[in-house]
Amino acid sequence: MTEPTHPANAVDITGLVKTYRSTKGRPGKQALKGIDLAIPRGSIFGLLGPNGAGKSTLINILAGLVVKTSGEAKIWGYDVESQSRMARSSIGVVPQELNLDAFFTPRELLELQAGLYGVPAGERRTDELLKAVDLTDKANAYARTLSGGMRRRLMVAKAMVHSPPVLVLDEPTAGVDVELRKSLWEYVRALNAKGVTVLLTTHYLEEAQELCDRIAIINNGELVANDTKANLLRRIDNKKLTIAVDRDLTDLPPALTAQGWEKLDARHLTVAYKPSQTPVGALLSALGENGLGIADLSTEETDLEDIFLQLTRRVG
Ligand code: ADP
Ligand code: MG
Q1: Distance between Cα 19 and ligand 1 center (Å)
Q2: I need a labelling partner for 121 at 20 to 30 A (CA). Which of 19, 164, 166, 211 fits?
Q3: Ligand 1 centre and the CA of 47: distance in Å?
């Protein structure tokens, strides 16, 4: 067996296919259609995609929870199947579902988990981990009494008991409030600064934008993008401008319709535009030229869905 100590890629996936068989309750599904993906050592890598794209399937194959149909997946150079023990010891996974045993305390859960991974008592980092996820106060409270945010943090600590070089978080901040989201991000950054490679899945573009240096987008079991954040954001050339006007509108002047303006209701107009092609000033002055005063305005970056449309259009 080879013992790669510092592979260039923390995770290496080639031609990964997963076809779920149909069961009584569920139809069969090809969830991954031949994914090639390399996650460079030391990165914070975001795997983005809408619900059902295949993110959890990919993560669960890495975690050893789902058996791949074909292709190859390596963690820290170790094959998830033929070197499963080494692969598993190289990865910590925070699953999408919060499945904590409610009748243990955080301290007990971390100790148990360390035991499962064969971490000797003298090398356990229970207190350090509790502190890192801000649960020192709750060390001896039953897990069932913890808030959702605390449970999420405890799951992160649990994934780190064996000090894996790769940490995987599946939708870490879904349904989590803004404050906790920020503190989780900070913790992820701190781990990354210590050399941990982080892979996280999310359907929040903002999260990927904030945290990740590389981003891959998966859609319907296929990778539609895989690039540095900077390059990817450059490709996202869509914004939305919404205006409240100062009087009731009946019909839009043709000049505005031609620019792409749409009426939302009697007092609101919206337009989707490409900042690289249409300066926002041209949109605003067109309103004035057509006799409309602006009472208020807001702009929005496009959301993930728009980016998908853009990317899939470009690919297809
Ligand atoms: P994501 O995490 O991106 O939301 P998943 O990996 O959970 O996506 O699911 C990908 C696709 O595979 C979905 O269409 C989902 O319904 C299907 N799927 C997931 N798990 C199973 C399963 N155990 N059996 C059948 N189909 C499944
Ligand atoms: Mg999922």
Answers
A1: 10
A2: 166
A3: 15
Q: Quick one: how far is CA 235 from the chain centroid? A: 19
Q: How far apart, in whole angstroms, are the C-alpha atoms of residue 220 and residue 61? A: 17
| Residue 312 confidence class, pLDDT cut points 50, 70, 90 | low
The pLDDT tens digits of the residues spanning 115-124 come to 999 999 999 9
Domain locations in the chain as residue ranges: 9-234, 237-303
Domain 9-234 in this protein, CATH class: alpha beta
Helix (H) or strand (E) holding 34: strand 29-40
274 vs 270: CA distance, rounded Å: 13
Average pLDDT of the chain, as a whole number: 89
Using a 6 Å CB cutoff, which residues line ligand 1? 20, 26, 29, 31, 49, 51-57
Residue 4's pLDDT band, with cuts at 50, 70 and 90, is: low
